Amino acid sequence: MKRKSSLIAQQMSSQRKNMALLTVISLALGVAIVSQAALLAEAVQRIFVEKASLTSLILLLTILLAVMAVRTLLSYGNGKVGLHMAATAKTNMRAAVLQSLTHASMPSTLRGQTGGKVSIPLDAVDEADSYFSLYMPRMMEAAIIPILILVVTFTQHANTGFIMLFTAPFIPIFMILVGLKTKNKSEEKYAELAQFSGTFLDSLQGLVTLKIFGRAHRQQKEIERSSLSYRDATMGILKVAFTNTFMLESIVMLSIGIVALELAIQLLVFKSMTFHTAFLVLLLVPEFYSQLKNMGTAFHSGRTSMGAIRKVEQMLAETEGESSSLNGKEKADSEADASSIGSDGMEQVDKSQTAHAVLQPMPPSIELDHVRFKYAPDSFELEAGLISLEPGEHIAIVGKSGSGKTTLLHLIAGLLKPESGTVWVNGIPLSQYDETAWFENVSYITQHPYIFAGTFAENISIGAGRNVSRAQIEQAAKDAGLTELVAQLEQGLDTFVGEGGRGLSGGEKQRLALARAFLKRPAIILFDEPTVGLDLHTERVLQRSIAELAKTATMITVAHRLYTIQHADNILFMDNGMLVDSGKHDELLERLPQYAEMVDVQRKGGGGLA
User: Fold this and answer.
1) CATH class of the domain defined by 359-441+524-610
2) Where is the signal peptide (predicted)?
3) Would you call 17 exposed, middle or buried from its count of C-beta atoms within 10 A (0-12, 13-18, 19+)?
């Protein structure tokens, strides 16, 4: 689906009042420029030609100073409006990019380098500033002021008007040719910047790994290469800018020289015009070309900014394209589901009534109805038949490594959208629930939960999604088994932890993640079994906390340990992307040879369930 209008058009449409204000200010500025030239010419005429006394010129000079002050204020006002437009546009674009990243699908989120994505809302959006703060005000001035000056010049001396009319087009023609090249160079620059940002951030995040494997020096060379490529792209734009400035100055100086020569011939040789008229025209001509030159410089900056805006637009278009395809599929699914009856015997569901369905009762019943999912064409594919998960059950998902366990977990969580089939929640398609409301009732704890730079208390409070008291945070920490650890810290819960949980062990990160869940008290808890790789004591502490947390929730675990499977209410066995069978531990041992073999291997110490 094509975007209805470009990103620039959308931003300009939302700033019509500012554009109207720019038009009024530019028109007033044009009048001030002409008035200043006329008053200055009159003052020079009286002082040097008519030999008038200074006392007789006080009023004229006062008016001249007032007009000059008004011109300065109008120029300042134009700049302020441009800055306001730039600030508003950058805020809107940055919000749109962050929203698109927030609502992007899981495959889209995982695709590409993090540094490259970060450079879009930061560097690319910042570079768009020039388009609104410089380009638009100068273009508005160029659309009004030169025409006003040209009209006044024609009324004073037609020959000069024709010279200006003939030479003026050379500036925009050259400007367009240079601008097109600048836009292409700018896009190359931001492609290099995205690559450089991605390489640099990847290197920082994996610095320990690079050192361990002796690859730090090689990665340093890669960063240097990427940095030099970005430098070359930037210098290419500067080269174009200097060339542009030189050519504009040459054209302007040549044009003013031709006009000055023609005026001198008319004034001194043919004596066909007065000094006042010649001087007034000579004052207006540089103003005319100055506006065109400013427009040329602004056009270069604008085309550079357009390259950056294009990168922002591409990111939004990609996300919108994914959302449109998903929404179209969900709409078709919803229309098909609107006349269906849920597995729990619910009455027919009207789509319009369930667009913002409320999650009640909680924990909910969940049903997978012939769900299929594929990350990309000719890639891993998951298929699941008809399976029901009852409220409050402990569900274990097991299978060999790469069998699709985590993918199935993501489908149940709503992090991935099925290509076909439906995930039902309380008899209503999951796609019809408000996403924010749904995730308020879900907690997902992985083997490597992310810890943000901040204090323990701040990291725990993230789980609440609301303002919580200190007592609630302390209780959540206690429920998660963090009491002993916190007591050993000099600043307790106010102890600072580094980004990514630097300074914390694996078990401490897991307990912090569990504290978030205790604070949230979700109805659905998803685990990519977090106890793998932990020592026995830490594992027992976590198991007690998990058991307590699961008393009022449905718990779905990607299982790696035999005892987790044995205590599950329902086990989903995955093999090569297929949901082969489901049931209790003893049932699957009897009827599913692959499952029995897997259990036997672990009992003999041959490894986990992967």
Assistant:
1) alpha beta
2) none
3) exposed
Q: What are the boundaries of each domain within the chain? A: 7-320, 359-441+524-610, 445-521
Beta bridge mates, 424: 367, 429
Summarised one tens digit per residue, pLDDT across range 117-148 is: 777 888 888 888 999 999 999 999 999 999 99
This model's pTM is above 0.85: no
Structure token digits, residue 579: 């949901």
CB neighbourhood size of 599 (10 A): 19
| pLDDT-derived band at 360, boundaries 50, 70, 90 | low
Of 70, 278, 64, nearest in space to 159 by CA: 278
DSSP 8-state class, residue 416: S
Which CATH code fits 7-320? 1.20.1560.10
CA atoms within 13 A on the CB side of 199: 20
Q: How far is CA 427 from CA 369, 431, 475, in A?
A: 11, 12, 35
Q: Specify the CATH superfamily of domain 445-521.
A: P-loop containing nucleotide triphosphate hydrolases (3.40.50.300)
Query: What does the pLDDT look like over 552-601, one tens digit per residue?
Result: 888 898 887 777 788 889 999 998 889 898 899 989 999 888 888 888 88
C-alpha to C-alpha distance for 305 and 324, rounded to whole angstroms? 28
Q: Are 259 and 285 in contact (CB under 8 A)?
A: yes
Q: Provide the residue count of the chain.
A: 610
Q: Token match 């897991």: residue?
A: 510
Between CA 439 and CA 444, with CA 442 as vertex, the angle to 5 degrees is 110
- Cα gap 504→486, rounded to integer Å: 12
Q: Which residues pair with 571 in a beta bridge?
A: 396, 583
Q: Do domains 359-441+524-610 and 445-521 have the same CATH topology?
A: yes
Cβ pair 373, 411 in contact under 8 A: yes
What amino acid occupies position 565?
I
Q: How far apart (Å, rounded) are the C-alpha atoms in residues 119 and 441? A: 33
